[in-house]
Amino acid sequence: MELTHGHLLGGRLSYAQPRQGFRSGIEPVLLAASIPARPGDHVLEGGAGAGAALMCLTARVDGVRGVGVERDPALAALAGMNASGNGLAIAYIAGLVEKLPVRGPFEHAFSNPPFHAASGTQSALPAREAAKRAAGGLFGDWARALASTLERRGTLTFVATAAALPACVAAFEEAECGSVALFPLWPREGEAAKLVLLRGVKGGKGPCRVLPGLTLHERGGRFTPEAESVLRHGAALAF
Asked: What is the pTM (predicted TM-score) of this model?
């Protein structure tokens, strides 16, 4: 596996990932910033890739005990090397999210699942295709599996496209993770959100809420100060 080497959180974390296939963007960093973990909490990530999200979370919150599940054994091994190289105690396990090789209870579970429609243009790279394409019923399968490990009042968080929101909200409700909150990621002020963070609470019964969200870019293309504080300085999102 040919790798590229970069950094996360403004250079705070070193990060290697495959040169070809699915490559991390800003989504895992934003996802990590949305998890309301406290020191000592047990946190589970489904579809961990090369480990960006859990590393960012454990770097932000001291004492978090993280477990990541990744279908690709080579990526799971790379995530483990990334974590150990940064001095982070995270366990990465090769396995399917639908058939989780771990049990709870966890206080929080989260995922950046494959969310592109099955009808879209396919990638020539099998690894990238598997990481981005949502097979029928995937949201429901992943939500049920991850929710099954949660303690009562634990949180389940996904990042998804706006187009996938109806299916994701339904999946959360079926997994008994209600009180769903939606956190839009606005590309620029006045533009429609393409990505949304959504969180449900195990056993939650409250109504669905739409929160103010985060504007990512200024008109000139630079990140907004609020986005910079999350992406470069490890701040938590007000979610």
From this structure: 0.90
Which three-class secondary structure state does DSSP give residue 124?
coil
Class for domain 3-231, per CATH? alpha beta
Helices (H) and strands (E) in the chain, counts: 7, 11
Handedness of CA 187, 43, 142, 114 (dihedral sign): positive
- Burial code of 196-219, b = ≥16 C-beta within 10 A, e = fewer? bbbbbbbebeeeeeeeebbbbeee
Environment class of 160 (CB within 10 Å of its CB; exposed 0-12, middle 13-18, buried 19+): buried
Residue carrying the six token digits 């090397």: 81
Cβ pair 22, 49 in contact under 8 A: yes
pLDDT by residue, tens only, the chain of 239 residues? 899 999 999 999 999 999 887 788 999 999 999 999 999 999 999 999 999 999 999 999 999 999 999 999 999 999 999 999 999 999 999 999 999 999 989 999 999 999 655 555 554 445 444 544 456 699 999 999 999 999 999 999 999 999 999 999 999 999 999 999 999 999 999 999 999 999 999 999 999 999 999 999 999 999 999 999 999 999 999 99
Residue ranges in the chain assigned as alpha helix (H): 27-33, 52-60, 73-85, 126-132, 138-147, 165-174, 225-231
